[in-house]
Prior knowledge:
Elements: E1 4-13, E2 16-26, E3 31-35, H1 42-50, E4 57-62, E5 65-66, E6 77-80, H2 92-102, H3 107-121, H4 136-148, E7 154-158, H5 166-183, E8 186-191, H6 194-200, E9 203-208, E10 211-216, H7 218-223, H8 228-233, H9 235-243
Parallel strand pairs: 3-8, 3-9, 6-7, 7-8
Antiparallel strand pairs: 1-2, 1-4, 4-5, 9-10
Amino acid sequence: MKSLSVWKVSKYFGNVKALDEVDLFVKSGELMVIMGPSGCGKTTLLLVVLGALRPDKGSILIGDEDVTNMPIEKRNIGYVPQDFGLFPHLNVYENISFGLKVRGYPRNEIDERVKSLLEIVGLEGLEKRRPKELSGGQRQRVALARALATKPSLLLLDEPLSNIDEMTKTEVIANLKNLQRKTGVTTLCVTHNPEDAFKIGDQIAIMYSGRIIQFGKPEEILREPRNEIVKKIIAPIYMLWNKH
């Protein structure tokens, strides 16, 4: 697996600076969560790393390779959008194997890889079901398996818990963390929800107004929030932390 380095990245939309000289480093095999309010730039940063948007300044490195100007299809990145992006007319097997087929993998390799991923995500026996026949948590696991099918260097998750009901969220978080540990893939996740962020991340980056204003382990940020803006962003979980 490879690390991710974001160096002095800026992105403008007209006169609006969506990203303002963002620096970020994610260690190989680490699960990093970018958290902040709507409009702070976190999804823009994710799309710049993915290659769907080009930065106006700065550079993106995956491992030692500069991918700043590399086309999206060359970056070897797995991506799970907020709505999971599953093909409704394809079954579980066909969704997971889609990227492998596009890349021309032999049928036996596709079968082996899909079987392995189905075991990892706990969906054995559901290969023939279509997305509409699955629960929200199951659809998410299919999307994760599809994103991991081509053995990406980096996994990007956009609001992975936004379409999950509260009753199953604990299970989904456990599944997500377990899958990331099993595969060891370097992962960058964005969320607006502080409770989700602090449950998921090995490291957390707090974004506000296009900048990362604090970075560290969850307990470090809770113990020493850098300023009042950070305190406000993490308020729901910060208040619970201080009661203990």
